[in-house]
Amino acid sequence: xxxHEQLGALEVGVDQLIQAVVAPQAQNIPETRNAxxxxxxxxxxxxxxxxxxxxxxxxxxxxxxxxxxAQAETARKEPAANPDxxxxxxxxxxxRPTLEINRPAQNEITMTIxxxxxxxxxxxxxxxxxxxxxxxxxxTPEPPPxxxxxxxxxxxxNPVMAVQKxxxxxxxxxxxxxxxxxxxxxxSPDMVIQLYMMLTQR
Length: 202
What we know:
Blueprint lengths: L2 H25 L7 H43 L5 H6 L10 E7 L2 E6 L2 E5 L1 H15 L24 E5 L5 E7 L3 E7 L1 H12 L2
Antiparallel strand pairs: 1-2, 2-3, 4-5, 5-6
Helix pairs in contact: 1-2
């Protein structure tokens, strides 16, 4: 309800108040009293009731005006947020969790991601290496064709090997690395000759 509607409601209430106050008093005036005296008393009561009603209306109007002024000040100091701006405002990406790898013991490795730490035993590490190796084989870019400078590695001397001949003439060579586990390689016949020459040359 706005200010004008409240003022209208108060005026209606004033009229009803005047009728409720003046009518009973007019009926309670003795018949023996002078008609002029009764009219003057009714007029005085009506004037008093109207003054009180006007005072009430004025107070209500001042209160409503103060509230409207306060709302205007608040709206001026704190403009309402535009929902379109909030919808189009870019959302900052959350920080990506970091991976930390530690080796607290000879046969244990811990991996910490996003504050969650998992301890891995040798069997679990071997399984993880195998899964990662299989996934990496289908990813791009491929590993560099040449040996990168500063590459750290652990070589296995005289590894255990297994060879299997394929139906198309290729040779499957599987070598056991102490870190990577069983590592399979497939060689075509001409590549087998090149490998033999590389290994036997002085």
